[in-house]
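F.,

This is the one I mentioned.
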């Protein structure tokens, strides 16, 4: 028969919960933007982990909502965010910033950018209150691609934060911000102004960015050079990219269009390449 433990002996208890905000480094390690389904599984597991406190699980849930958005499961994403809001008592400014940011991102993916803007502006305010510079920059970069007529203003505000930052993960936002404003200028018929922005994005990628960002940064510079009629320079860059990634559909499309332009007696703007879904005029996305 089992004997009771001696009086006063220590009793085993539940393992202490991990408390405090979830680090961006941990979120980065769980994200794979090329495989949203696998990312969703990881964030679901993290959101269900009772070894974390309520706030930490809720932060993971916001990223689950984002992954659902990338999968086109918008209703599921919105439901996750509603559950976060309903289950979390006295949410921190940081959590409110994440939830608002992902709510806005879902709405924008649903072709509702005007509805998304108030959520992004709320995310900026809450992130600033929390001292969460990374989240503030994420929200500013989303405003720069969503708030029609104010793209350059939001990008400039974000770049001012980047220029003052010393943390390389924060400085990496310069890649996305310069790239976004570059595409805004390019698609507004201002390619001469766009090229310096693409070049700045590439410099940032070479300094603090990822290998993928460097690849996409070079592609964007070459794409803008084509618009400017600098076909030889564009061709050299695209050939270099093709040697590194022979199966890159965006690179192959650009090379075909450059060849078409070079062979034409009168160079006319060729048709835009399409992405894997067949949507024309789509550039590869630079994730922060």
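My design for it:
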């Amino acid at each position: 028969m089992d004997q009771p433990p001696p009086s006063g002996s220590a009793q085993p208890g539940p393992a202490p919960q991990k408390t405090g905000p979830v680090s961006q480094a941990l979120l980065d390690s769980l994200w794979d933007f090329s495989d949203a389904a696998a990312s969703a599984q990881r964030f679901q597991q993290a959101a269900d982990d009772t070894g974390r406190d309520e706030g930490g699980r809720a932060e993971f849930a916001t990223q689950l909502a984002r992954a659902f958005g990338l999968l086109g499961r918008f209703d599921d994403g919105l439901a996750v965010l509603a559950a976060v809001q309903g289950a979390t008592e006295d949410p921190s400014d940081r959590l409110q910033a994440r939830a608002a940011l992902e709510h806005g991102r879902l709405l924008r993916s649903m072709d509702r950018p005007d509805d998304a803007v108030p959520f992004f502006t709320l995310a900026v305010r809450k992130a600033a209150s929390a001292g969460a510079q990374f989240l503030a920059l994420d929200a500013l970069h989303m405003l720069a691609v969503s708030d029609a007529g104010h793209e350059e203003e939001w990008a400039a505000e974000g770049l001012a934060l980047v220029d003052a930052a010393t943390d390389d993960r924060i400085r990496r936002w310069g890649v996305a911000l310069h790239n976004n404003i570059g595409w805004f200028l390019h698609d507004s018929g201002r390619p001469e102004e766009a090229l310096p922005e693409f070049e700045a994005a590439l410099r940032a990628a070479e300094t603090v960015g990822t290998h993928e960002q460097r690849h996409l940064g070079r592609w964007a510079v070459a794409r803008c050079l084509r618009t400017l009629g600098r076909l030889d320079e564009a061709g050299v860059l695209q050939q270099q990219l093709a040697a590194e990634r022979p199966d890159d559909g965006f690179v192959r499309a650009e090379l075909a269009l450059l060849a078409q332009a070079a062979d034409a007696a009168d160079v006319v703007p060729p048709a835009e390449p399409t992405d894997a879904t067949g949507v024309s005029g789509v550039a590869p996305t630079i994730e922060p």
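The domain at 163-288 is CATH 1.25.40.10 (Serine Threonine Protein Phosphatase 5, Tetratricopeptide repeat).

Talk soon.
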